[in-house]
Structures are given as C-alpha cells and as structure tokens.
Structure to design on (292 residues):
C-alpha cells in the first residue's frame, strides 16, 4: 500500500473480539477519533488486511467498532524515539533561551511508548517525590521507509504520516542533568495517537494547530508554523550519517505554556486528564494521569 492510499489509520482492539488487534481507517473523516472514543461513542472502522500501519494492506470491506484505541505503532516497531527540544519560537521566548543553531536531539526508549486513554499515563515514584511531572504537547512524525542522508527537499518523501504525542517529563531530574534521556524516558512517558494521518493528506504540516488541555483548561496553544526547524529540516538533519528505519517516531518539540514555565507552575497530579489536540485531521490524544 502506498502512502496516498489511506487517509487516517487507527490501531485498535475491536468490540467484537477483545483478543485481536486490528488496523483500519475510520469511516467518518470528520470526527475526532480520540475524543469520540473517550466519550463512549461508537466509532466505525473499515478494517484493513495488514497488521501494521507500516504495511496496512487493503480495505477488507469489513466494519468493526473501536473498543480500545492503541498507539499507531507497537513498541517493537518504533525502535528508539527521537525527540527535538527547544523547537518553538514562542517556547524559546518563554524560557528565555536563544534559538539553537541545529536541532537539539534527545531520545526516549521504546519502553516509553504508551497507548491513549483508557491506558493510563504512569508517573513514576521518582517524579512524584519532587512533584514536577510536566506535559509537552507535540506533533509526532512517523517515518515510512528507511532514511539516510536525506536532503531537506526530499525529506517529506520518507514520512508516512503524523500523529500526536505528550512528552511527559520529570523537571527536577531534567534540571539536575545536562542530558534529558533519563528525565524524559520513563516507562509510558510517550503516549501516542489517536490516529496516524497520511503525509499525502497533510501536504504542508505548517498548517496544523496544536493545543494542550489539562482538565479541559487550555494551557498550550501553538501553530506548527512556529517551529524553529521545520519538519523537513528535522528529518534531513537526523538522517545525516544515521539510518532512520521505517517506524521511527520523531517528536518535533512543544509550544509555549509548559507547566514549569507558568506562574504559578502547573504540574501534573494524580487523576488529571491531559489532552493534546492537533487540527485538522489528527484529533485529540486523550490521557489520564496515574501515580505509580
């Protein structure tokens, strides 16, 4: 299947068979999949023949309904998750830092990948001790074919699609170290979803708008056009001398409004709800916070 032969894909457990994991395309292009599932509405999906968004196969003409949304990719498929720090102009301004000369890279292990609601976003005990669990609403890129030494003008050809993520962070641990992999790499610290939207549908990701809500209160309100390094620049940079295998997930940074920079500070607490909304097409990644 080519990139252009799907619009939005979901990976899900169907109501008819709780032991199965399916790939498919929601029948209604207009609805927010994550929010509708969270609200308990029936979401009809055209089931595809494949078992992965990397090779989804063809429409089987069978309909199933979502019982549980899963991350678009499994932990076995994502490898090491690449993340770009300090990549929104308004975020750099709020933390009073100069724009970086090159993309700032850190990584999350595959064990950080997590499903959307109803799977909980777990805050580990080490973060609870300082009370500094923070949110970062992010656009995520999914690479569709192996990429190495890719030019900026060709980078878009290697992108399968886009989804939403929350780069859950432990701020005290982050500020204690010069490297961020530990403070941002805890189990389940990278919820991803709800849909994977084809790069053919989002020809220019700069049109997207991103919002972050804690308990339905808007805390982050940004535009992908505010990125310091564009999507194509990020993919090209990360591919220099390094193979980005198909399935690689790249988090592109977070806009202004993170909890640590607010007055007063706004950290995540047990049983909080956090939502990352990216429009159009992608929808809302719904998560609920659970202290370990």
């Amino acid at each position: 299947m080519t990139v252009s032969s799907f619009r939005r894909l979901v990976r899900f457990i169907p109501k008819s068979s709780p032991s199965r994991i399916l790939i498919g395309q929601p029948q209604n292009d207009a609805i927010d999949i994550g929010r509708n599932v969270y609200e308990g509405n029936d979401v009809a999906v055209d089931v595809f023949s494949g078992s992965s968004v990397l090779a989804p196969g063809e429409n089987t003409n069978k309909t199933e309904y979502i019982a549980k949304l899963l991350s678009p990719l499994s932990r076995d498929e994502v490898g090491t998750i690449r993340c770009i720090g300090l990549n929104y102009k308004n975020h750099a301004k709020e933390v009073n830092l100069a724009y970086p000369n090159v993309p700032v890279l850190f990584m999350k292990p595959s064990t950080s990948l997590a499903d959307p609601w109803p799977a909980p976003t777990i805050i580990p005990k080490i973060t609870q001790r300082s009370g500094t669990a923070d949110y970062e609403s992010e656009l995520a890129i999914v690479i569709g074919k192996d990429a190495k030494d890719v030019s900026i003008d060709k980078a878009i050809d290697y992108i399968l699609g886009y989804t939403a993520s929350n780069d859950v962070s432990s701020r005290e641990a982050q500020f204690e170290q010069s490297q961020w992999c530990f403070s941002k790499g805890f189990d389940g610290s990278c919820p991803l979803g709800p849909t994977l939207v084809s790069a053919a549908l989002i020809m220019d990701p700069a049109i997207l708008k991103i919002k972050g809500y804690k308990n339905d209160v808007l805390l982050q309100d940004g535009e992908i056009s505010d990125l310091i390094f564009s999507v194509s620049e990020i993919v090209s940079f990360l591919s220099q001398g390094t193979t980005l295998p198909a399935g690689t997930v790249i988090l592109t940074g977070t806009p202004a409004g993170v909890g640590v920079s607010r007055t007063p500070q706004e950290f995540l607490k047990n049983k909080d709800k956090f939502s990352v909304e990216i429009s159009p097409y992608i929808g809302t990644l719904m998560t609920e916070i659970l202290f370990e």
In short: The mean pLDDT is 96.
